[in-house]
């Protein structure tokens, strides 16, 4: 009869899933993704050192 009984009940926690057995293709794919992520982060770091690629300001069309 307490005030906490009303409202929505919390769902029970789902049991943890067993880790999948990864085959060679999955392992190679994950390794490739890690390498791509590292390359992307390295490219971001290199790009942040330099200034913006275009410094032209407002773009003007050829029409007058």
Automatic annotation (TrEMBL):
Q: Name one Pfam family in it.
A: TMA7
Source taxon at top rank: Eukaryota
Q: Where is the composition biased (Gly residues)?
A: 53-64
- The parts of the chain that form a coiled coil are none
> Region Disordered: which residues?
1-64
Q: Where is the composition biased (Basic and acidic residues)?
A: 15-41
InterPro entries the UniProt entry points to:
TMA7
By its UniProt entry, which PANTHER family does this protein fall under? TRANSLATION MACHINERY-ASSOCIATED PROTEIN 7
* Protein name per the record: Translation machinery-associated protein 7 homolog
Q: Which organism is it from?
A: Drosophila erecta
